[in-house]
Here is the input.
Amino acid sequence: MKRLSKNILMLFISEAGGRLIGFFTTIYLARNLSVDRFGIVNIGLTVFAYALLFGSQWLNIYGTRRIAAGEKSNFIGRFISLRFVVSFIVFILTIILTYLFVEDTIIVSVIVLFVFSIFPNIFFLDWYYQGKENLFPVSIGKLLISIVYLLALLFLFSNLPNLIWVPVSFLIANSIGVAFVLYRFRIEGNSLIPSFSLNNSYQLFKESFNLSSASVVSQINFNLPIIIIGLTLSTTEVGIFSAANKLVIFLLLLDRFFYSLYFPAVTRVFQESSERLSEVVSFVLRIALLVIIPVTVGGIMLSEPIIRLIFGNDYQDASLVFQILIGYFTTTILNSIYGYGLVAIKQEKLYSKIIALSLIVYLFSTLIFTYLFGVVGTAAGVVVSEFVVLVCFRFAFGKFVQVNFFCYILKVFPALLVMIIVIYFTSHNLLLSIPAAASSYLLIIVATGGISKSDLQTLKEKIL
Here is the structure.
Protein backbone atom coordinates (compact mmCIF):
# COMPACT_ATOMS: atom_id res chain seq x y z
CA MET A 1 0.00 0.00 0.00
CA LYS A 2 1.31 3.45 -0.92
CA ARG A 3 2.26 5.87 1.83
CA LEU A 4 -0.53 8.22 0.73
CA SER A 5 -3.05 5.38 1.01
CA LYS A 6 -1.85 4.52 4.51
CA ASN A 7 -2.05 8.16 5.58
CA ILE A 8 -5.57 8.49 4.20
CA LEU A 9 -6.57 5.34 6.08
CA MET A 10 -5.03 6.68 9.28
CA LEU A 11 -6.72 10.04 8.80
CA PHE A 12 -10.02 8.28 8.30
CA ILE A 13 -9.54 6.25 11.46
CA SER A 14 -8.51 9.19 13.64
CA GLU A 15 -10.36 12.15 12.15
CA ALA A 16 -13.58 10.48 11.01
CA GLY A 17 -13.66 8.09 13.96
CA GLY A 18 -12.53 10.73 16.43
CA ARG A 19 -14.98 13.34 15.23
CA LEU A 20 -17.80 10.81 15.19
CA ILE A 21 -17.07 9.87 18.80
CA GLY A 22 -16.61 13.55 19.63
CA PHE A 23 -19.96 14.22 18.05
CA PHE A 24 -21.57 11.62 20.30
CA THR A 25 -19.83 13.31 23.23
CA THR A 26 -21.32 16.65 22.18
CA ILE A 27 -24.77 15.09 21.89
CA TYR A 28 -24.40 13.50 25.32
CA LEU A 29 -23.41 16.81 26.91
CA ALA A 30 -26.09 18.82 25.08
CA ARG A 31 -28.84 16.44 26.14
CA ASN A 32 -27.64 16.10 29.75
CA LEU A 33 -26.90 19.77 30.37
CA SER A 34 -29.13 22.80 30.15
CA VAL A 35 -28.48 25.08 27.18
CA ASP A 36 -26.65 27.64 29.33
CA ARG A 37 -24.48 24.96 31.02
CA PHE A 38 -23.68 23.56 27.60
CA GLY A 39 -22.62 27.09 26.72
CA ILE A 40 -20.31 27.24 29.76
CA VAL A 41 -18.58 24.02 28.67
CA ASN A 42 -18.00 25.47 25.22
CA ILE A 43 -16.60 28.68 26.70
CA GLY A 44 -14.12 26.55 28.64
CA LEU A 45 -13.20 24.58 25.52
CA THR A 46 -12.74 27.81 23.58
CA VAL A 47 -10.38 29.29 26.16
CA PHE A 48 -8.47 26.00 26.17
CA ALA A 49 -8.25 26.17 22.37
CA TYR A 50 -6.73 29.65 22.61
CA ALA A 51 -4.30 28.59 25.34
CA LEU A 52 -3.23 25.55 23.30
CA LEU A 53 -2.89 27.67 20.18
CA PHE A 54 -0.68 30.31 21.79
CA GLY A 55 1.17 27.76 23.91
CA SER A 56 2.31 25.14 21.42
CA GLN A 57 -0.01 24.56 18.47
CA TRP A 58 1.18 27.57 16.50
CA LEU A 59 4.63 26.00 16.35
CA ASN A 60 3.42 22.88 14.54
CA ILE A 61 3.80 24.07 10.94
CA TYR A 62 7.42 25.03 11.53
CA GLY A 63 8.18 21.75 13.29
CA THR A 64 6.59 19.73 10.50
CA ARG A 65 8.58 21.54 7.83
CA ARG A 66 11.88 21.07 9.67
CA ILE A 67 11.25 17.34 10.21
CA ALA A 68 10.14 16.89 6.58
CA ALA A 69 13.37 18.58 5.49
CA GLY A 70 15.38 15.92 7.36
CA GLU A 71 16.16 17.74 10.60
CA LYS A 72 18.33 15.77 13.04
CA SER A 73 16.95 14.27 16.26
CA ASN A 74 18.48 16.92 18.56
CA PHE A 75 16.02 19.40 17.07
CA ILE A 76 13.14 17.54 18.75
CA GLY A 77 14.43 18.15 22.28
CA ARG A 78 15.04 21.84 21.59
CA PHE A 79 11.63 22.21 20.00
CA ILE A 80 9.83 20.49 22.89
CA SER A 81 11.64 22.74 25.38
CA LEU A 82 10.45 25.82 23.52
CA ARG A 83 6.88 24.49 23.53
CA PHE A 84 7.04 23.94 27.29
CA VAL A 85 8.35 27.43 28.11
CA VAL A 86 5.81 29.18 25.90
CA SER A 87 2.95 26.99 27.17
CA PHE A 88 3.79 27.69 30.80
CA ILE A 89 3.79 31.44 30.21
CA VAL A 90 0.47 31.21 28.37
CA PHE A 91 -1.01 29.11 31.18
CA ILE A 92 -0.12 31.73 33.82
CA LEU A 93 -1.46 34.60 31.70
CA THR A 94 -4.70 32.73 30.98
CA ILE A 95 -5.35 32.07 34.67
CA ILE A 96 -4.68 35.71 35.57
CA LEU A 97 -6.95 37.06 32.82
CA THR A 98 -9.72 34.61 33.73
CA TYR A 99 -9.79 35.74 37.37
CA LEU A 100 -9.68 39.38 36.32
CA PHE A 101 -12.48 39.36 33.74
CA VAL A 102 -14.82 36.47 34.67
CA GLU A 103 -17.06 36.92 37.70
CA ASP A 104 -19.02 33.66 37.64
CA THR A 105 -17.12 31.18 39.84
CA ILE A 106 -18.48 28.16 37.96
CA ILE A 107 -17.21 29.50 34.63
CA VAL A 108 -13.83 30.32 36.22
CA SER A 109 -13.47 26.78 37.60
CA VAL A 110 -14.40 25.18 34.27
CA ILE A 111 -11.96 27.39 32.34
CA VAL A 112 -9.04 26.76 34.73
CA LEU A 113 -9.52 22.98 34.64
CA PHE A 114 -9.79 22.92 30.85
CA VAL A 115 -6.62 24.99 30.45
CA PHE A 116 -4.59 22.41 32.42
CA SER A 117 -4.88 20.16 29.35
CA ILE A 118 -2.35 22.28 27.46
CA PHE A 119 0.47 20.63 29.44
CA PRO A 120 0.15 17.07 28.11
CA ASN A 121 -0.30 18.52 24.61
CA ILE A 122 3.21 19.99 24.79
CA PHE A 123 4.42 16.44 24.14
CA PHE A 124 1.90 15.57 21.44
CA LEU A 125 4.14 14.80 18.45
CA ASP A 126 1.65 15.31 15.63
CA TRP A 127 4.03 17.80 13.97
CA TYR A 128 6.84 15.23 14.05
CA TYR A 129 4.85 12.37 12.56
CA GLN A 130 3.27 14.58 9.92
CA GLY A 131 6.76 15.65 8.84
CA LYS A 132 7.71 11.97 8.65
CA GLU A 133 4.48 11.30 6.67
CA ASN A 134 3.62 8.56 9.18
CA LEU A 135 0.24 9.36 10.65
CA PHE A 136 -0.40 6.06 12.42
CA PRO A 137 0.75 6.92 15.99
CA VAL A 138 -0.94 10.33 16.02
CA SER A 139 -4.12 8.96 14.44
CA ILE A 140 -4.46 6.31 17.13
CA GLY A 141 -3.54 8.84 19.81
CA LYS A 142 -6.28 11.25 18.71
CA LEU A 143 -8.80 8.45 18.49
CA LEU A 144 -7.81 7.33 21.98
CA ILE A 145 -8.39 10.86 23.32
CA SER A 146 -11.91 10.89 21.88
CA ILE A 147 -12.75 7.45 23.27
CA VAL A 148 -11.35 8.07 26.75
CA TYR A 149 -13.05 11.47 26.98
CA LEU A 150 -16.45 9.94 26.25
CA LEU A 151 -15.89 6.96 28.56
CA ALA A 152 -14.67 9.20 31.39
CA LEU A 153 -17.75 11.40 31.01
CA LEU A 154 -20.04 8.38 31.05
CA PHE A 155 -18.39 7.10 34.21
CA LEU A 156 -17.71 10.32 36.16
CA PHE A 157 -20.44 12.70 35.02
CA SER A 158 -23.17 10.07 34.92
CA ASN A 159 -22.47 8.97 38.49
CA LEU A 160 -22.00 12.49 39.85
CA PRO A 161 -23.50 15.12 37.50
CA ASN A 162 -21.18 17.98 38.39
CA LEU A 163 -19.99 20.31 35.64
CA ILE A 164 -16.40 20.06 36.92
CA TRP A 165 -16.16 16.45 35.73
CA VAL A 166 -16.31 17.59 32.09
CA PRO A 167 -12.88 19.33 32.04
CA VAL A 168 -11.46 16.67 34.36
CA SER A 169 -12.49 13.97 31.88
CA PHE A 170 -10.96 16.05 29.10
CA LEU A 171 -7.62 16.27 30.96
CA ILE A 172 -7.56 12.51 31.61
CA ALA A 173 -8.25 11.79 27.94
CA ASN A 174 -5.54 14.12 26.64
CA SER A 175 -2.97 12.69 29.06
CA ILE A 176 -3.65 9.11 27.98
CA GLY A 177 -3.63 9.96 24.26
CA VAL A 178 -0.30 11.79 24.51
CA ALA A 179 1.18 8.98 26.61
CA PHE A 180 0.39 6.53 23.80
CA VAL A 181 2.11 8.71 21.18
CA LEU A 182 5.20 9.06 23.38
CA TYR A 183 5.24 5.31 23.92
CA ARG A 184 5.21 4.71 20.16
CA PHE A 185 7.94 7.30 19.73
CA ARG A 186 10.16 5.51 22.25
CA ILE A 187 9.66 1.96 20.93
CA GLU A 188 10.62 3.19 17.46
CA GLY A 189 14.07 3.79 18.89
CA ASN A 190 13.77 7.54 19.34
CA SER A 191 14.69 9.55 22.40
CA LEU A 192 13.28 12.81 23.68
CA ILE A 193 15.79 14.76 25.73
CA PRO A 194 14.78 18.37 26.48
CA SER A 195 17.51 20.85 25.60
CA PHE A 196 16.90 24.47 26.43
CA SER A 197 19.19 27.26 25.28
CA LEU A 198 18.10 30.88 25.30
CA ASN A 199 19.81 31.66 22.00
CA ASN A 200 18.57 28.53 20.24
CA SER A 201 15.06 28.95 21.62
CA TYR A 202 14.92 32.56 20.49
CA GLN A 203 15.99 31.56 16.98
CA LEU A 204 13.40 28.79 16.85
CA PHE A 205 10.75 31.15 18.19
CA LYS A 206 11.58 33.80 15.59
CA GLU A 207 11.58 31.38 12.66
CA SER A 208 8.37 29.71 13.87
CA PHE A 209 6.64 33.05 14.32
CA ASN A 210 7.49 34.19 10.80
CA LEU A 211 5.99 31.01 9.37
CA SER A 212 3.11 30.37 11.75
CA SER A 213 1.81 33.81 12.70
CA ALA A 214 -0.79 33.62 9.95
CA SER A 215 -2.02 30.27 11.25
CA VAL A 216 -2.41 31.79 14.72
CA VAL A 217 -4.58 34.59 13.36
CA SER A 218 -6.66 32.05 11.46
CA GLN A 219 -7.30 30.07 14.64
CA ILE A 220 -8.12 33.26 16.54
CA ASN A 221 -10.80 33.92 13.95
CA PHE A 222 -12.19 30.42 14.29
CA ASN A 223 -12.80 30.68 18.05
CA LEU A 224 -13.63 34.37 18.21
CA PRO A 225 -17.46 34.02 17.89
CA ILE A 226 -17.80 32.05 21.14
CA ILE A 227 -15.87 34.71 23.05
CA ILE A 228 -17.89 37.55 21.49
CA ILE A 229 -21.23 35.86 22.22
CA GLY A 230 -20.14 35.08 25.78
CA LEU A 231 -19.14 38.69 26.41
CA THR A 232 -22.05 40.43 24.66
CA LEU A 233 -24.99 38.02 24.96
CA SER A 234 -25.34 35.08 27.36
CA THR A 235 -24.25 31.49 27.96
CA THR A 236 -27.59 30.33 26.51
CA GLU A 237 -26.76 31.98 23.17
CA VAL A 238 -23.31 30.41 23.41
CA GLY A 239 -25.02 27.03 23.72
CA ILE A 240 -27.22 27.70 20.66
CA PHE A 241 -24.30 28.85 18.53
CA SER A 242 -22.10 25.98 19.76
CA ALA A 243 -24.67 23.36 18.76
CA ALA A 244 -24.70 24.63 15.17
CA ASN A 245 -20.95 25.16 15.19
CA LYS A 246 -20.28 21.59 16.34
CA LEU A 247 -22.06 20.31 13.24
CA VAL A 248 -19.89 22.52 11.05
CA ILE A 249 -16.73 21.40 12.87
CA PHE A 250 -17.72 17.79 12.22
CA LEU A 251 -18.09 18.56 8.50
CA LEU A 252 -14.70 20.28 8.53
CA LEU A 253 -13.18 16.84 8.80
CA LEU A 254 -12.75 17.36 5.04
CA ASP A 255 -10.61 20.42 5.68
CA ARG A 256 -8.34 18.37 7.92
CA PHE A 257 -7.87 15.89 5.07
CA PHE A 258 -6.92 18.71 2.72
CA TYR A 259 -4.37 20.16 5.14
CA SER A 260 -2.70 16.87 6.02
CA LEU A 261 -2.48 15.53 2.47
CA TYR A 262 -2.66 18.53 0.15
CA PHE A 263 -0.06 20.78 1.83
CA PRO A 264 2.85 18.27 1.82
CA ALA A 265 1.95 17.13 -1.70
CA VAL A 266 1.83 20.65 -3.18
CA THR A 267 5.07 21.56 -1.42
CA ARG A 268 6.77 18.52 -2.95
CA VAL A 269 5.36 19.19 -6.44
CA PHE A 270 6.53 22.81 -6.32
CA GLN A 271 10.06 21.72 -5.41
CA GLU A 272 10.12 19.12 -8.17
CA SER A 273 8.37 21.01 -10.96
CA SER A 274 6.57 24.33 -10.55
CA GLU A 275 4.94 23.83 -13.97
CA ARG A 276 2.88 20.93 -12.63
CA LEU A 277 1.48 22.99 -9.78
CA SER A 278 -1.43 24.43 -11.75
CA GLU A 279 -2.51 20.94 -12.78
CA VAL A 280 -2.37 19.59 -9.22
CA VAL A 281 -4.22 22.53 -7.65
CA SER A 282 -6.87 22.46 -10.39
CA PHE A 283 -7.49 18.77 -9.76
CA VAL A 284 -7.77 19.21 -5.99
CA LEU A 285 -10.09 22.19 -6.42
CA ARG A 286 -12.32 20.26 -8.80
CA ILE A 287 -12.66 17.30 -6.43
CA ALA A 288 -13.26 19.64 -3.48
CA LEU A 289 -16.09 21.44 -5.24
CA LEU A 290 -17.74 18.17 -6.19
CA VAL A 291 -17.92 17.32 -2.48
CA ILE A 292 -18.54 20.57 -0.62
CA ILE A 293 -21.27 22.07 -2.83
CA PRO A 294 -23.81 19.23 -2.31
CA VAL A 295 -22.94 19.02 1.40
CA THR A 296 -23.60 22.75 1.76
CA VAL A 297 -26.91 22.71 -0.11
CA GLY A 298 -28.09 19.53 1.62
CA GLY A 299 -27.17 20.94 5.02
CA ILE A 300 -29.18 24.11 4.40
CA MET A 301 -32.27 22.19 3.26
CA LEU A 302 -32.18 19.64 6.08
CA SER A 303 -30.98 21.85 8.94
CA GLU A 304 -34.17 21.76 11.02
CA PRO A 305 -34.66 17.98 11.15
CA ILE A 306 -30.92 17.45 11.69
CA ILE A 307 -30.76 19.83 14.67
CA ARG A 308 -33.96 18.43 16.15
CA LEU A 309 -32.77 14.83 15.80
CA ILE A 310 -29.29 15.42 17.24
CA PHE A 311 -29.74 18.01 19.97
CA GLY A 312 -33.45 17.99 20.72
CA ASN A 313 -36.18 20.63 20.63
CA ASP A 314 -34.40 22.92 23.13
CA TYR A 315 -31.85 23.71 20.42
CA GLN A 316 -34.32 24.42 17.62
CA ASP A 317 -33.04 28.00 17.30
CA ALA A 318 -29.69 26.55 16.22
CA SER A 319 -31.14 25.43 12.85
CA LEU A 320 -31.10 28.93 11.38
CA VAL A 321 -27.60 29.51 12.75
CA PHE A 322 -26.48 26.29 11.09
CA GLN A 323 -28.04 27.28 7.76
CA ILE A 324 -25.91 30.40 7.74
CA LEU A 325 -22.81 28.92 9.34
CA ILE A 326 -22.47 26.11 6.82
CA GLY A 327 -21.25 28.77 4.42
CA TYR A 328 -18.16 28.89 6.62
CA PHE A 329 -17.58 25.21 5.89
CA THR A 330 -17.61 25.87 2.14
CA THR A 331 -15.36 28.90 2.10
CA THR A 332 -12.90 27.48 4.65
CA ILE A 333 -12.06 24.46 2.50
CA LEU A 334 -11.53 26.66 -0.55
CA ASN A 335 -9.40 28.98 1.57
CA SER A 336 -7.28 26.02 2.63
CA ILE A 337 -6.58 25.13 -1.00
CA TYR A 338 -5.55 28.64 -1.97
CA GLY A 339 -3.96 29.61 1.35
CA TYR A 340 -1.80 26.53 1.86
CA GLY A 341 -1.01 26.74 -1.85
CA LEU A 342 0.57 30.14 -1.17
CA VAL A 343 2.58 28.72 1.72
CA ALA A 344 3.67 25.77 -0.43
CA ILE A 345 5.10 28.10 -3.10
CA LYS A 346 6.94 30.04 -0.38
CA GLN A 347 4.67 33.07 -0.34
CA GLU A 348 4.30 33.05 3.43
CA LYS A 349 4.50 36.84 3.73
CA LEU A 350 1.62 37.36 1.32
CA TYR A 351 -0.36 34.64 3.11
CA SER A 352 0.34 36.32 6.46
CA LYS A 353 -0.80 39.72 5.22
CA ILE A 354 -4.15 38.33 4.09
CA ILE A 355 -4.66 36.46 7.36
CA ALA A 356 -3.74 39.57 9.36
CA LEU A 357 -6.34 41.50 7.38
CA SER A 358 -8.87 38.77 8.09
CA LEU A 359 -8.51 39.28 11.85
CA ILE A 360 -9.62 42.89 11.48
CA VAL A 361 -12.49 41.92 9.18
CA TYR A 362 -13.58 39.08 11.51
CA LEU A 363 -13.49 41.24 14.60
CA PHE A 364 -15.52 44.12 13.20
CA SER A 365 -18.00 42.12 11.14
CA THR A 366 -18.71 39.65 13.96
CA LEU A 367 -19.10 42.39 16.56
CA ILE A 368 -21.35 44.54 14.35
CA PHE A 369 -23.53 41.68 13.13
CA THR A 370 -23.84 40.26 16.66
CA TYR A 371 -24.90 43.67 17.99
CA LEU A 372 -27.49 44.09 15.22
CA PHE A 373 -28.90 40.57 14.89
CA GLY A 374 -27.79 38.54 17.92
CA VAL A 375 -26.46 35.02 17.56
CA VAL A 376 -27.76 34.74 13.96
CA GLY A 377 -25.74 37.85 13.16
CA THR A 378 -22.64 36.23 14.64
CA ALA A 379 -22.96 33.39 12.14
CA ALA A 380 -23.50 35.85 9.29
CA GLY A 381 -20.46 37.88 10.33
CA VAL A 382 -18.30 34.74 10.32
CA VAL A 383 -19.39 33.76 6.80
CA VAL A 384 -18.99 37.26 5.38
CA SER A 385 -15.49 37.50 6.83
CA GLU A 386 -14.44 34.13 5.48
CA PHE A 387 -15.74 35.05 2.03
CA VAL A 388 -13.66 38.23 2.03
CA VAL A 389 -10.60 36.12 2.85
CA LEU A 390 -11.49 33.73 0.00
CA VAL A 391 -11.58 36.58 -2.52
CA CYS A 392 -8.18 37.80 -1.31
CA PHE A 393 -6.62 34.32 -1.42
CA ARG A 394 -8.06 33.65 -4.87
CA PHE A 395 -6.64 36.89 -6.25
CA ALA A 396 -3.22 36.43 -4.59
CA PHE A 397 -2.77 32.80 -5.64
CA GLY A 398 -3.86 33.66 -9.19
CA LYS A 399 -0.80 35.87 -9.56
CA PHE A 400 1.42 32.78 -9.40
CA VAL A 401 -0.76 29.83 -10.45
CA GLN A 402 -3.63 30.03 -12.93
CA VAL A 403 -6.70 28.07 -11.84
CA ASN A 404 -10.11 28.26 -13.47
CA PHE A 405 -12.65 28.41 -10.65
CA PHE A 406 -16.07 28.96 -12.20
CA CYS A 407 -16.06 26.28 -14.88
CA TYR A 408 -15.88 23.58 -12.18
CA ILE A 409 -18.99 24.93 -10.43
CA LEU A 410 -21.05 24.78 -13.63
CA LYS A 411 -20.40 21.06 -14.00
CA VAL A 412 -22.05 20.40 -10.64
CA PHE A 413 -25.38 22.08 -11.42
CA PRO A 414 -27.28 19.20 -13.17
CA ALA A 415 -26.53 16.73 -10.37
CA LEU A 416 -27.21 19.38 -7.75
CA LEU A 417 -30.64 20.14 -9.21
CA VAL A 418 -31.62 16.47 -9.08
CA MET A 419 -30.37 16.23 -5.50
CA ILE A 420 -32.45 19.25 -4.46
CA ILE A 421 -35.59 17.68 -5.93
CA VAL A 422 -34.91 14.42 -4.10
CA ILE A 423 -34.42 16.23 -0.79
CA TYR A 424 -37.59 18.28 -1.30
CA PHE A 425 -39.74 15.16 -1.59
CA THR A 426 -37.97 13.10 1.11
CA SER A 427 -37.03 15.70 3.77
CA HIS A 428 -39.68 14.32 6.15
CA ASN A 429 -37.45 11.26 6.69
CA LEU A 430 -33.73 11.88 7.24
CA LEU A 431 -32.81 8.20 7.07
CA LEU A 432 -34.28 8.14 3.57
CA SER A 433 -33.44 11.65 2.41
CA ILE A 434 -29.67 11.72 3.01
CA PRO A 435 -28.74 8.42 1.28
CA ALA A 436 -31.24 9.04 -1.55
CA ALA A 437 -29.87 12.54 -2.17
CA ALA A 438 -26.26 11.36 -2.05
CA SER A 439 -26.90 8.44 -4.40
CA SER A 440 -28.77 10.54 -6.94
CA TYR A 441 -26.06 13.19 -6.88
CA LEU A 442 -23.28 10.67 -7.46
CA LEU A 443 -25.11 8.96 -10.30
CA ILE A 444 -25.81 12.20 -12.15
CA ILE A 445 -22.35 13.66 -11.57
CA VAL A 446 -20.78 10.57 -13.16
CA ALA A 447 -23.35 10.38 -15.97
CA THR A 448 -22.93 14.04 -16.95
CA GLY A 449 -19.14 14.00 -16.79
CA GLY A 450 -18.90 16.16 -13.70
CA ILE A 451 -16.16 13.76 -12.69
CA SER A 452 -14.30 12.24 -15.61
CA LYS A 453 -12.64 8.88 -16.11
CA SER A 454 -9.27 10.58 -15.95
CA ASP A 455 -10.24 12.06 -12.55
CA LEU A 456 -11.17 8.62 -11.25
CA GLN A 457 -7.95 7.18 -12.66
CA THR A 458 -5.92 9.91 -10.98
CA LEU A 459 -7.64 9.25 -7.66
CA LYS A 460 -6.97 5.56 -8.03
CA GLU A 461 -3.28 6.13 -8.80
CA LYS A 462 -2.73 8.67 -6.02
CA ILE A 463 -4.71 6.96 -3.28
CA LEU A 464 -4.70 3.24 -4.02
About this structure: The chain has 20 helices and no strands. Residues 348-398 form the longest helix (51 residues). The mean pLDDT is 83. The radius of gyration is 22 Å.
